[in-house]
Amino acid sequence: MAPSRFNPSQIKNKIKRDEIHRAAKREKKQAKLKRRLLQAEKERSDPEAKKERLAANVPKTQDNMREYDPSMLTVNPTTQNTTEDAGHNVDPNQEANLDMDNDPFASYFDSDADPSIPPKVLITTSPKATRTTYDFCDELVGIFPGAEFIRRKKGKGFEIGVIAGWAAGRGYGAMIVVNEDMKKPNGITLIHLPHGPTAYFKLTSVQLTKQIFGHARATPHNPELILNNFSTRLGHAVGRMFQTLFPRLPEFEGRQVVTLHNQRDFLFFRRHRYAFRSPEKAALQEIGPRFTLKLRWLKKGLPAVQNLGAPPPKLQIADEEEENTKLGSNPINAPATDEYEWQWRVT
């Protein structure tokens, strides 16, 4: 195409202007194709040229452009290769080990109970949930081996904090509340029992098992759990919180694996079954469901139950010999205010 003496946008005739624009776009596309073909032919004869191009053209992502932070459980890349700091670097996992010894989940991992017995998980919904949310809760019951779904009742006295205290007194190890908006599930509140913490995740990109083409059927075996890229102290705490939802000892004969992949601060959930087709390769078949989580906040303890209109309680003297007559019931009261450990972008 011959160079134009004027800008095509100055052409007043719309049909002629579109014709020139399409011709220029076609010519640019052909030139790019020729350039790529010549580059591919050159790299076939010289493999080192391709390696140099790939090494130079590294895409910039949020993960590889993130600056090192002391909360990361990895070695500082700026001091990793220096000889003058050798022997003086602090182990990045030292603080993480102290956190694991003193966090609320330590009792679960240090327990002497049978590791093959799954922890009890209570799953419920927000008030007035719809059929779509109930279908998603059915999927969650199939994911966690010890899960149980209880329909949430309406009215006062069924706040999340009250239900969490009730579940903690009956031996539940965790509680999951699925929230919905516009008749679609849009959030998950995960509560570790009996004393917290409480985390809220934004829920997006939900696909049920029946919506996945060629999905596999789930079996009642305890799945394996893979936590990928939880490399900060906050991520380590969230990962251990998810670990408490599964039994410590999986059943490998089921060949089921649950994956939580952290990328760009999003948690991608997938569930697969693997099969060894040969000694070198393994085949994967997705079971479902699939969804994406994003942590919004993390609070200490159970969710607060605020009753601003209630009068203050009367002063009472406790009787030391008074005991709870309800067999197997040890309710835990929810706090009156929330205390945040972490919150997303507080302004």
UniProtKB/TrEMBL annotation:
GO cellular component terms, semicolon-separated: nucleolus; preribosome, large subunit precursor
Record field: compositional bias (Basic and acidic residues): 38-54
All copies of domain Brix, residue ranges: 119-304
Residue spans of biased composition, Polar residues class: 1-12
One Pfam match: Brix
Top-level taxonomic group: Eukaryota
GO BP annotations, alphabetical order: maturation of 5.8S rRNA; maturation of LSU-rRNA
Molecular-function GO term, any one: rRNA primary transcript binding
The protein, known as: Related to RPF1-involved in the assembly of the large ribosomal subunit
Lineage: Eukaryota, Fungi, Dikarya, Basidiomycota, Agaricomycotina
